[in-house]
């Protein structure tokens, strides 16, 4: 049964990006605060400011204002963008090279610092160096079966470690010293400091696109066999039941308490609390789904959209209104980490009371008594 957990809102219309140039496609996006960056197939980076507007009726919309765009001078697509806001730097992957550019004017750093030979890269969101003026970058190298760790400063880069993998890696996520890797035939956890690795489960990267996503401290979300979204800790165990995706998931994101997945035709929303599918949104031609500081963004080749979460209290009230007491209570308990303690206690008491009256009206007196108590 469905819950209205998210609303899809347009953020950047195709005309703002490409006008009448049909050949321009969106390759990658990055969002940092109000800054939205878009990398295209014709080697441009576009910078927009995103302003959220709330109408008197509570309806949310976004106004994107173009700041500037910059041509990188190659005939290659911009394949990845990552912001390092502490350094006011944008890391740009194009033609297997990561270039550092200024987040404001998109100019390359004067020293020309860059990382060469990168197939793909990710940032360590739980860094081990402790230096606030440095970001830790992990790349899958063009060298076969090689992962490299770098420290990136404002105007220089420094290689820290090179690690060899048992098979060719095709996707990576990092947490501290732990790498969660999709190899050719399986997922593994690898501690790059000690070299100790642990097999998770088999997976064929030739048949489907692997998904490896850090979702919290020492925990990852992976696209498993049989259309399952699997959770794994750095110890190689799963503390949550898997969610059932479609077989051809392209991307996944987390917006607690929901896991959002994108396939060729739909955006699906599953609860991490009870693993049930809560919402399905039709969405054709999507190829990017990412979350940035709690903001979930999806994109087609031509436009960018934001999945705006409905307030949890509204979702709980909707569940109670349709007499789905058990689901409402599970969601209310799960909301504890998102709501200040005093406010949560007041809200939770009221929900228990409402749930009690619903059970009472359905002549479920023992359940009602427990809730009233």
TrEMBL record:
Query: Is Oxidoreductase set as a keyword in this record?
Result: no
Q: Tell me the keywords, alphabetical order.
A: Cytoplasm, Protein transport, Transport
Enumerate the PROSITE patterns for this protein: CNH
Subcellular location field: Cytoplasm
Q: Where does the CNH domain start and stop, copy by copy?
A: 23-296
Please name the GO terms of the biological process aspect recorded for this protein, alphabetically.
autophagy; endosomal vesicle fusion; protein transport
For this protein, the record's Pfam families field holds:
CNH
Q: Which GO terms describe its cellular component?
A: cytoplasm; membrane
Query: InterPro entries given for it?
Result: CNH_dom, Vam6/VPS39/TRAP1
Highest taxon, organism lineage: Eukaryota
Full protein name: TGFA1 protein
The organism named in the record is: Cephalopterus ornatus (Amazonian umbrellabird)
Q: Top-down, what is the taxonomic lineage of the species of origin?
A: Eukaryota, Metazoa, Chordata, Craniata, Vertebrata
């Amino acid at each position: 049964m469905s819950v209205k957990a998210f609303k899809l809102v347009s953020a950047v219309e195709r005309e703002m990006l490409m006008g009448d140039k049909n050949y321009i496609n969106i390759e990658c996006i990055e969002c940092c605060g109000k800054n939205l960056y878009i990398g295209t197939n014709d080697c441009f980076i576009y910078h927009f400011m995103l302003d959220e507007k709330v109408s008197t009726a509570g309806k949310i919309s976004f106004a994107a204002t173009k700041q500037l765009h910059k041509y990188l001078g190659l005939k290659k697509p911009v394949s990845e963008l990552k912001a390092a806001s502490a350094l006011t730097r944008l890391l740009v992957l194009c033609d297997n090279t990561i270039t550092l550019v200024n987040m404001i004017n998109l100019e390359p750093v004067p020293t020309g610092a860059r990382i060469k030979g990168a197939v793909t890269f990710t940032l360590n969101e739980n860094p081990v160096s402790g230096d606030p003026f440095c970001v830790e970058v992990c790349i899958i190298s063009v060298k076969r079966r090689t992962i490299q760790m770098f420290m990136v400063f404002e105007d220089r880069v420094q290689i820290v470690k090179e690690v060899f993998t048992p098979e060719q890696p095709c996707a990576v996520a990092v947490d501290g010293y732990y790498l969660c890797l999709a190899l050719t035939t399986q997922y593994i956890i690898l501690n790059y400091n000690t070299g100790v690795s642990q097999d998770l489960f088999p997976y064929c990267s030739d048949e489907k696109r692997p998904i490896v996503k850090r979702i919290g401290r020492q925990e990852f979300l992976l696209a498993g066999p049989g259309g399952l979204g699997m959770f794994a800790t750095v110890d190689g165990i799963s503390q949550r039941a898997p969610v059932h995706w479609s077989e051809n998931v392209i991307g996944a994101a987390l917006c607690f308490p929901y896991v959002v997945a994108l396939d060729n035709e739909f955006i699906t929303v599953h609860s991490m609390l009870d693993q049930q599918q809560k919402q399905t949104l039709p969405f054709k031609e999507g190829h990017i789904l990412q979350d940035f500081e709690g903001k979930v963004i999806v994109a087609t080749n031509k436009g960018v959209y934001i999945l705006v979460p409905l307030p949890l209290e509204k979702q709980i009230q909707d569940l109670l209104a349709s007499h789905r007491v058990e689901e409402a209570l599970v969601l209310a308990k799960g909301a504890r980490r998102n709501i200040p303690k005093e406010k949560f206690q007041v809200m939770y008491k009221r929900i228990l009371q409402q749930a009690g009256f619903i059970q009472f009206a359905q002549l479920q007196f023992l359940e009602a008594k427990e809730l009233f108590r």
